[in-house]
Design brief:
globular; mainly alpha; about 180 residues
């Protein structure tokens, strides 16, 4: 049970009930990762908008984004997010458990293109040691074919994952998948 009160789908009313209805239509159920935001429907709306922005991103694949999330969460020991994203890679993108483990051991072994590995390495650097990012890093990403919007979106995705890890771990979210 999380440390803060959450609202179960059957108890939701008003705006929260409407948000839960949208989530249920999209995912089939309202996960604990959504319910943790239930005491602040505005934050839940922001989280839904954030997820929606990346669902069909034109330049960042689902595999790259899940790889970013799993490695950020791995560093932060957020088992909910590590396991959720590992299952996403395996169940939706047909990665093997060995491929997920290879990613976790060394990002350069990820089942991604060289271009995507370049972005993955950059985002990890930006999130873990932002003061070390330099113009050469951006130049390298441009040479790989990324534009500034994609670079910002990928970095934002990694940084927001850090925030989600903090929320999930601080309030002791329970796995529900």
């Amino acid at each position: 049970m999380p440390l803060i009160n959450t609202v179960k789908p059957e108890d939701a009313t008003g705006e929260l009930e409407e948000l839960y209805t949208q989530i249920k239509a999209f995912r089939g159920h309202v996960s604990n990762s959504a319910q943790i935001f239930s005491s602040s429907p505005e934050l839940l709306k922001q989280q839904m908008s954030f997820i929606g922005h990346y669902l069909n991103h034109k330049g960042l694949s689902m595999a790259l984004l899940a790889s970013i999330r799993i490695l950020i969460s791995d560093t932060n020991n957020c088992s909910y997010c590590v396991d959720f994203n590992a299952s996403m890679l395996m169940n939706l993108l047909n990665w093997t458990p060995k491929e997920v483990e290879a990613l976790r051991k060394n990002p350069m072994n990820a089942n991604l293109s060289d271009k995507e590995k370049g972005m993955l390495i950059f985002v990890l650097k930006a999130v873990r040691t932002p003061h070390d990012v330099n113009a050469e890093d951006i130049k390298h990403l441009h040479a790989l074919g990324y534009d500034d919007s994609e670079i910002l979106d990928a970095t934002n995705h990694g940084a927001r994952m850090l925030a989600v890890d903090i929320i999930f771990d601080a309030f002791k979210i329970e796995k529900d998948f």
